[in-house]
Specification:
Blueprint: E1 32-36, E2 42-46, H1 50-53, E3 59-63, E4 65-67, E5 71-76, E6 81-90, E7 99-105, E8 115-118, E9 123-130, E10 136-140, H2 144-154, H3 172-177, E11 185-188, H4 200-209, E12 212-218, E13 241-244, H5 247-258, E14 263-266, H6 267-276, E15 283-286, E16 301-305, H7 312-321, H8 323-335, E17 346-350
Parallel strand pairs: 1-17, 3-12, 3-14, 4-11, 14-16
Antiparallel strand pairs: 1-2, 5-6, 5-8, 6-7, 7-10, 8-9, 9-10, 12-13, 13-15, 16-17
Helix pairs in contact: 7-8
């Protein structure tokens, strides 16, 4: 018999739909912040309190990826609606156009060789072969900066399906708030949501507190947020995501740990990035699945949001702070009316001994 930590059913909990945040807090750093200390410590704060909950010499590591307006609505040659969600770019020959693995609707219409248009015909695409999980490879007529400009003009921010909008169209508020204030490197199709709570004022107070900040990049894909389908977690496989740890960040992590400081990852994406890296591998593709029993090498604490039942993200935070402890915190959050998921409230959790 498998231990409870290895069973998907051990990561389920009841969540009223009313607690799924449909809009961000009026002010980024006004979200609630639950603190789970390294022992049995527990506290309730607001996110603006974060600098006071850290110590001089600690290091925060954040994912500076920028969410692409990766949802494209267009039409098929010959008529009929078409929808694409860009997932992963494939490097190809110059001059051929950008090639992306995409989720497509209606999927059965995206047959190899079929043509599609977006933005009133200003961005063209041709469907290719099938990829992972029924997705399709699509080659676009533009490349590089020209392609990114077309996305900015014709694409939409791909909000998660649990955020309900008329016709699934994001609002003007979404365009700004579903992006961290430090987003720089375009490449994600979902936001590293733990970072949505930061403000210039919080950053200023972190610096005054003596808490350093460093950055990594992980091109967040939709697979990160998909519920796990296998009851036995041994059978779950993560989707590949591209990561990059700048040498300066790697050096800051090593320097912090050598000096006795703590490395705090902002979000599950920064955690996966750091834990995927080594001195001789600071960038590449990662499929790392962090689950209870995993021995953390670089991360001592994490700032994170409240996650979906049965998700790899909930499994990951359970690996850091303990499954039963996390689920008890989630029960408290439900009873206390805390807000869940991308636009929801936050947690500051610390690694349990031996985790």
């Amino acid at each position: 018999m498998l231990p409870a930590d290895s069973l998907l059913s051990s990561y389920m909990f009841d969540l009223p739909a009313s607690l799924v945040a449909q809009s961000p807090a009026p002010q980024r750093d006004a979200s609630r912040l639950m603190r789970l200390g390294p022992g049995d410590e527990y506290g309730e704060h607001i996110f603006a309190d974060l600098p006071n909950l850290l110590q001089p010499g600690d290091l925060l590591v954040r994912n500076n990826v920028r969410v692409l307006p990766a949802r494209l609505l267009g039409k098929r040659a010959g008529g009929g609606a078409a929808e694409l969600l860009l997932v992963r770019k494939e490097d190809g020959p110059d001059g051929v156009g950008e090639r992306w693995l995409c989720m497509a609707r209606p999927a059965n219409r995206f047959k190899p060789g079929r043509e599609f248009s977006f933005g009133d015909g200003n961005l063209l695409a041709v469907a290719g072969e099938r990829g992972d999980d029924g997705m399709v490879w699509v080659t676009f007529s533009r490349t590089g900066a020209d392609f990114l400009a077309a996305l900015e003009q014709y694409g939409q921010v791909p909000l998660p399906p649990y955020i309900d909008r008329p016709d699934k169209r994001p609002t003007a508020e979404d365009a700004g708030r579903y992006q961290t204030i430090y987003a720089r490197n375009p490449g994600a199709v979902a936001a590293p949501t733990a970072g949505l709570h930061f403000t210039p004022e919080v950053d200023r107070r972190l610096a005054e507190r003596g808490v350093a900040v460093a950055e990594v990049t992980l091109n967040v894909g939709p697979g990160t947020f998909r519920p796990i389908k296998e009851e036995n977690l041994d059978n779950h496989r993560m989707h590949s995501e591209w990561f990059d740890v700048p040498p300066a960040t790697w050096e800051a992590v090593q320097r912090t740990r050598a000096a006795g400081g703590r490395v705090v990852a902002v979000g599950t994406t920064s955690t996966r990035t750091l834990e995927s890296a080594d001195a001789d591998r600071l960038q590449g593709w990662t499929e790392l699945f962090i689950r209870p029993g995993y021995r953390f090498r670089w991360v001592d604490g994490m700032v994170t949001n409240f996650h979906l039942p049965g998700s790899s993200l909930l499994v990951m935070v359970s690996a850091l702070a303990g499954r039963e402890r996390i689920l008890e915190a989630y029960r408290r959050a439900v009873a206390g009316g805390w807000r869940f998921y991308s636009y929801g409230d936050a947690m500051l959790i610390w690694r349990t001994s031996g985790g």
